[in-house]
């Protein structure tokens, strides 16, 4: 028994350690966000409703069937249904019936309703997928922000370690009287500033992790973290394509554009349905009925089943309904739906313009941020050389601690600029690739 309990405790401990040390990749974050997003769940319910609506529309083509049974009793002067003789009695009457109705022609409204229901299901699918696309971009942006802050923290920590070594060496030189104490104070000030920067970067990492966790609806902020990985600027040939080429391809698969186009088709179907209301409606019906009576004065000659068989009858026919005037309701409905068709077409064109503007802006952003990143990298290389030169001079006493601290600060700023421009460029690169149909990935 003790072994069982010990084994269970060890298993729970192992699971707990595993849960605390789990590191989330971008793909895991995106998948989790989509599966747990409340709006996604709401849109999925809307999609299920659209499928039910399609079933309703298909059901309109089928005939209806209903059954009824009427049981009544009358006392006094009555007509006996069996003999058609007026008599004073109590008569029990049982009348079962079956009725079937079917629409033969309704101005093709059922046809258009069925077609509209299919389009509406597709439109809801586009709407759901468009939402998922937005979630993917938001998660990718938040994920890259965490990576950026973590990299900035690592650089700050590495720079602080270098400053610690300079601090130890300068303290020894001050104690031996080689350099003035002012140099030590300058190095100490630089170290304190770097410590503050580390604290700030740690706070930024925490805040960005919490922001990503909230986007994923994860409340265990302390144990949530992303995968530790060094991330370089990925190779991409997306700029080999013009913004026009990217836009033309985006038109073929973007869910927001497909949704906008589907909305035009829905409006056109609504117009066809409204026009159908101005046409005559032809329906068919079939009725089967019978009756059983029981007279309190005259005994029944025939039993229940026999009476039903002898008294049954079938009626059938057609009914034609021609709309003549309904207070301008049909005419105004047609006018409103015409306006709605024009509105959805204008919105469709506006959505295409918005997409084109977004892609053009993304294209310019990629070009601009790539140049900014390349310039920042060149500046960093120059700052490194300047820092190394300054350190050599400081080590031999040809530069005071203040000037050396300035070189250190310029190097720190250069590192920070490289990290910021690097992830700005990466995110905009991923956005442009996303519009070209490339799945989000950090590979």
TrEMBL record:
<keyword id="KW-0998">Cell outer membrane</keyword>
<dbReference type="InterPro" id="IPR051906">
    <property type="entry name" value="TolC-like"/>
</dbReference>
<dbReference type="GO" id="GO:0015288">
    <property type="term" value="F:porin activity"/>
</dbReference>
<keyword id="KW-0812">Transmembrane</keyword>
<dbReference type="GO" id="GO:0009279">
    <property type="term" value="C:cell outer membrane"/>
</dbReference>
<dbReference type="Pfam" id="PF02321">
    <property type="entry name" value="OEP"/>
</dbReference>
<dbReference type="InterPro" id="IPR003423">
    <property type="entry name" value="OMP_efflux"/>
</dbReference>
<feature type="signal peptide">
    <location>
        <begin position="1"/>
        <end position="19"/>
    </location>
</feature>
<keyword id="KW-0472">Membrane</keyword>
<keyword id="KW-0732">Signal</keyword>
<dbReference type="GO" id="GO:0015562">
    <property type="term" value="F:efflux transmembrane transporter activity"/>
</dbReference>
<keyword id="KW-1134">Transmembrane beta strand</keyword>
<dbReference type="GO" id="GO:1990281">
    <property type="term" value="C:efflux pump complex"/>
</dbReference>
<comment type="similarity">
    <text>Belongs to the outer membrane factor (OMF) (TC 1.B.17) family.</text>
</comment>
<keyword id="KW-0813">Transport</keyword>
<protein>
    <submittedName>
        <fullName>Transporter</fullName>
    </submittedName>
</protein>
